[in-house]
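Narrative progress, year one. The postdoctoral researcher (J.K.) led the effort to move from monomer predictions toward full complexes, under supervision of the PI. The following entry was the first complex the group processed end to end, covering 226 residues in total.
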Amino acid sequence: DQQVKQNSPSLSVQEGRISILNCDYTNSMFDYFLWYKKYPAEGPTFLISISSIKDKNEDGRFTVFLNKSAKHLSLHIVPSQPGDSAVYFCAARTINTGTASKLTFGTGTRLQVTL
Amino acid sequence: DTAVSQTPKYLVTQMGNDKSIKCEQNLGHDTMYWYKQDSKKFLKIMFSYNNKELIINETVPNRFSPKSPDKAHLNLHINSLELGDSAVYFCASSQDYSEQFFGPGTRLTVL
């Protein structure tokens, strides 16, 4: 049962344009959503997050939007740069006992920013 | 300075062998995790430890045994390796339930 889905395995965007990566989830108990970026042969790197009580969070070129009624979130990158080329994972959090959290990941979207 | 480090980076071994993967974090975090990324790229949590205490155990076979000698280390020992254990294993750490920081991964190949 895949609770977090990223239906687009890949996305190609021209440099300078907007990249929009999408994520859908099914579990209403998720309280926090995160985006991680991953380069080949490296571990995922935290990028940006959003609480379930908000609908938007912005950090520089990165903005995450949350639509709770649709159980959908998206990551916008503008303007896109060649260094943004990586695999982006959407993750949703549930808290265990207050001392640890469990992240449920999507399968990732490979973003390629072309010149 | 590497925040979360894992050794080895690559591990190739025969079926039936026992192997260990080591993880260390220098972030001062209380909580550490092991994740498995399989061939379909699903990244799934296996275990979580907080201050050397097991917090999360996601129905992982008994052949997998995490060991936390102190809160900066969480090692993963795997007995009687099987072909299906081939995957990339990621260690992560966090301060309680805040953002998790991941290590570079260990690619395990079982022949």
